[in-house]
């Protein structure tokens, strides 16, 4: 019996020979539904390159579900990151991935721990943006025992059983923010420091380095006590209005945590903010911070490269589901991106 040919595949799939050739070579795009029909036909007729077609379609990759527990959807950073994670999971070359993205509508880390457990039991691996809390650590330990890797995203965690951390080196972020403020301010004076919560390791490390830089390199500045916005824009708005009223020697603000939209709103509303020429450093590129950069309300934004962050996270999560990394904690390098009004359009 003669070996089936490309023409036999084309006939069985009801497509042209050239279409089958495009699926085989991968040189030209073919609609996914058409390619799958060709693959089924190739297997049905026993075509000797059916495995090649299956490989082209990625059907030899294991199916995996990746879960992502992010902060509030109303923070535009996380809405955009959620979309990036969906896209990166679908595009993975390591797995046939399905993403489950959930957003927090609560502040309590005890609730986050419960949601993390629920998500972990639906997925092969999960990533979470969370403050460091014993309940979160306990949830990670439980999922580790159940064979579900948990990755810290954006802010690291102290849980020894976490599978890894994907995010910036926040010690470097804090030092970079301090360098900009100390060099851009036209005179020495008071510096405001905002954090969302000191339980976020990312913000705590960033603030520590920010303060140590000024102690070592620019002691002529007065750093005010840090204030917590609780990741809330309205809190940040009220805090900033109060700071502008009482700190007459204010020359700069470093917003290490959430609430930047409230800071921007307060700076726009207070007529003294412009005349003071404040040097304000924010975190993460969003539509709001981009506009504030263009308007001169913020001088610099220090940000994750969002798409690279998503691609890197998905890849390490995918790898963790197909190979045992043992007790090794994965920590891929994510470069810090410094955005000014001249280049911020490259990172949106």
TrEMBL record:
PROSITE patterns: HTH_LACI_1 (PS00356), HTH_LACI_2 (PS50932). Residues 4-68 form the HTH lacI-type domain. Transmembrane segments: none annotated. GO terms for molecular function: DNA-binding transcription factor activity; transcription cis-regulatory region binding. SMART domains: HTH_LACI. Keywords: DNA-binding, Transcription, Transcription regulation. The keyword Transcription regulation applies. CDD domains: HTH_LacI (cd01392), PBP1_sugar_binding (cd06307). This is Transcriptional regulator, LacI family.
């Amino acid at each position: 019996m003669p070996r089936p040919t490309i023409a036999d595949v084309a006939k069985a799939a009801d497509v042209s020979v050239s279409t089958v050739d495009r699926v085989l070579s991968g040189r030209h795009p073919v609609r996914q539904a058409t390619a799958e029909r060709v693959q089924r036909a190739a297997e049905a007729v026993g075509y000797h390159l059916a495995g090649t077609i299956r490989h082209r379609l990625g059907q030899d990759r294991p199916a995996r579900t990746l879960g992502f527990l992010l902060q509030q959807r109303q923070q535009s950073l996380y809405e955009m990151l959620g979309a990036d994670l969906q896209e990166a999971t679908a595009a993975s070359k390591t797995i046939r991935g399905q993403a489950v993205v959930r957003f927090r509508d609560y502040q309590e880390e005890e609730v986050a721990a419960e949601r993390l457990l629920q998500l972990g039991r639906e997925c092969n691996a999960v990533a979470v943006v969370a403050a460091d809390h014993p309940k979160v650590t306990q949830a990670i330990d439980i999922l580790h025992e159940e064979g579900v890797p948990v990755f810290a995203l954006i802010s690291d965690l102290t849980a020894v059983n976490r599978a890894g951390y994907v995010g910036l080196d926040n010690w470097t972020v804090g030092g970079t923010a301090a360098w900009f403020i100390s060099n851009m301010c036209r005179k020495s004076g008071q510096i405001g420091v905002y954090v969302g919560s000191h339980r976020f390791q990312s913000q705590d490390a960033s603030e520590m380095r920010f303060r140590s830089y000024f102690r070592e390199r620019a002691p002529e500045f007065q750093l005010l006590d840090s204030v917590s916005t609780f990741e809330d824009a309205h809190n940040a708005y009220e805090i900033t209005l109060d700071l502008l009223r009482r700190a007459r020697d204010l020359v700069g603000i470093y917003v290490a945590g959430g609430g930047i939209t409230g800071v921007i709103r307060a700076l726009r509303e207070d007529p003294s903010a412009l005349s003071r020429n404040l040097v304000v450093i924010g975190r993460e590129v969003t539509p709001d911070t981009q506009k504030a950069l263009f308007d001169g309300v913020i001088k610099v934004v220090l940000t994750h490269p969002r798409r690279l962050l998503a691609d890197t996270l998905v890849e390490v999560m995918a790898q963790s589901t197909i190979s045992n990394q043992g007790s090794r904690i994965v920590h891929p390098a994510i470069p810090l991106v410094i955005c000014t009004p001249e280049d911020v359009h490259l990172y949106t």
